[in-house]
Write a structure and sequence with these properties.
- The protein has 208 residues and is an alpha/beta fold.
- The protein has one domain: Vaccinia Virus protein VP39 (Rossmann fold), CATH 3.40.50.150.
- The protein is 35% helix and 29% strand.
- The protein contains 7 helices and 9 strands, in the order H-H-H-E-H-E-H-E-E-H-E-E-E-H-E-E.
- The strands form 2 sheets. A 7-stranded mixed beta sheet has the order 3-2-1-4-5-9-8, with helices on both faces. Strands 6-7 form a two-stranded antiparallel sheet.
- The chain is globular, with a radius of gyration of 16 Å.
- The mean pLDDT is 96.
- This is Methyltransferase domain-containing protein.
């Protein structure tokens, strides 16, 4: 069933409202999460001389902005949650844009890489093709997109106060390919566990 504009506005407002309420707890609870495997997966595929200009899409409180900065890159954050954007600016010192994921305003051909860690699953399936093409357009030629999402069986809906769409590998590959990306690699996380204990699907893509 197609979501109406009012439905999309409600999804955005409710999900962002949840993150606004739990922002402090979220920052504390995720501060020590090790996503270095994901950061490395993005950076090693970017071609050309460093430093790279990286968009941390859905940057949250700014943990990974700090990581990219420590590695010598130019990181810009983007988040829809006002409190997260404020935290990210304060904690990282980076430029952070507060934008609704469904109403993006991104510069063309600007980024060497986009880091979308645990965020794109919040975008309803019907809106994903448009959003992915916007991300594609904001990458330089040959630029790289990293994404990690909770995997699923191509269902979507509410998980408490948050909306999510949960894709399997084949569906995710089709979405990214249709948006103009070429797959570089994919893997499941956490590493070293049986597949049924790896809820996260990570993938890396180049702008064709």
């Amino acid at each position: 069933m197609k979501l109406a504009p009012d439905d999309l506005d409600s999804i955005t407002a409710t999900t962002l409202g949840h993150y606004q309420q739990v922002a402090e707890d979220f920052r504390e609870g995720t501060r020590d999460h090790d996503v270095s495997q994901n950061i490395d997966a993005l950076l090693r595929h970017i071609q050309g001389p460093a430093p790279f200009t990286v968009l941390d899409f859905g940057c949250g409180p700014g943990r990974d902005l700090q990581a990219f900065t420590r590695l010598g890159h130019v990181a810009i954050g983007l988040d829809g949650c006002e409190r997260f954007a404020q935290m990210a600016r304060e904690d990282s010192g980076c430029e952070v844009w507060q934008q609704d994921f469904l109403k993006l305003d991104l510069p063309a051909a600007h980024f060497d890489g986009i880091f979308a860690n645990a965020v794109l699953f919040h975008i309803p399936r019907q809106e994903l093709p448009r959003v992915l093409k916007q991300l594609h357009a904001s990458l330089k030629d040959g630029g790289v997109l990293f994404s990690s999402n909770p995997r699923g069986d191509n269902q979507e809906g509410w998980n408490g106060p948050r909306y999510g769409a949960y894709h399997d590998l084949a569906a995710w590959q089709a979405l990214l390919t249709d948006a103009g990306f070429v797959e570089l690699e994919h893997y499941y996380r956490p590493v070293g566990l049986p597949r049924e204990q790896q809820p996260w699907l990570a993938s890396v893509w180049r702008k064709a």
